[in-house]
Amino acid sequence: MKNLFTTAAALATMSIGSATHAQGSGDWYVSVFAGYSSIGSVDTDFNGFEVEHEFDDNGIFGVSVGRALQPGLRAEVELSYAQYDGGDVSYDGSLSFDETNGELSTTFLMGNIWYDVPTASFGGGVPYIGAGLGAVQLDADTTFGGFPFGYGDTVTGLAYQIGAGVQFPVGAGMIDVAYRLKAASGLDIDDNDGSGVYEDGTFLSNNLQIGYVTQF
To answer: Which segment of the chain is annotated as a signal peptide (predicted)?
Structure first.
């Protein structure tokens, strides 16, 4: 799979350029957003034992480029990035380690479909719901109790999200207040010391974000 960071740079460049030249209110739009992300834990299987790696909450930021397909229906490509500090680790539900040293980062590249609810209104804003499918790149650079967890390993896998939000007209653009649930599964993370692989890694992240939307 093509490196997501290369795709990220290309999308960010395109988004910034489009936003700079955006005028009027056409079918296309660019959104830049940031917010709060809670990843909880990354659950894996290591040699038949369940291992849960907790990570501290942190921020998320990203950009999206989209287009109205028809009234009330939008399609977009979204890029987002988040980085989390290591937390506690539990091994087979019993043995635990106080803290994971290092960081875990996630880069999502998603294709989304959003439906603007035409008959609804929320404080003067238009609510929407939708979902997306794409890929995640996970960079694990952590250790716990002297054991590596994907130390320097990069894995990619299938990802999805569901979400909802409200867009409020502000000047020539819109403020987008939203919730996103991002998830991935089936991630195999190498421990990089030759003793095994953390298999079938799964995680969920709950994200609250606010963004600014420019139409062109």
So the answer is: 1-22
* Whole-angstrom distance, CA of residue 161 vs CA of residue 109: 11
Domain count, the chain: 1
Q: Are 179 and 163 in contact (CB under 8 A)?
A: yes
CATH number for 20: 2.40.160.20
Q: Tokens 């320097």, residue?
A: 152
pTM of the model: 0.82
Phi and psi (nearest 5°) for 61? -145, 160
Q: Where are the beta strands (DSSP E) in the chain?
A: 28-38, 41-46, 49-55, 58-70, 73-91, 95-97, 101-116, 126-144, 147-170, 173-190, 197-215
Contact 50, 67 (CB under 8 A): no
pLDDT in tens, the chain (216 residues): 445 545 545 554 444 444 434 344 579 999 999 999 999 788 888 878 788 888 899 999 999 999 999 889 999 999 999 999 887 777 766 656 656 678 889 999 999 999 999 876 677 899 999 999 999 999 887 777 667 676 667 889 999 999 999 999 998 899 999 999 999 998 888 776 666 788 888 999 999 999 999 998
State the residue range of the domain holding 121: 4-215
Could you give the angle at the alpha carbon of 52 between the alpha carbons of 51 and 53, nearest 5°? 120
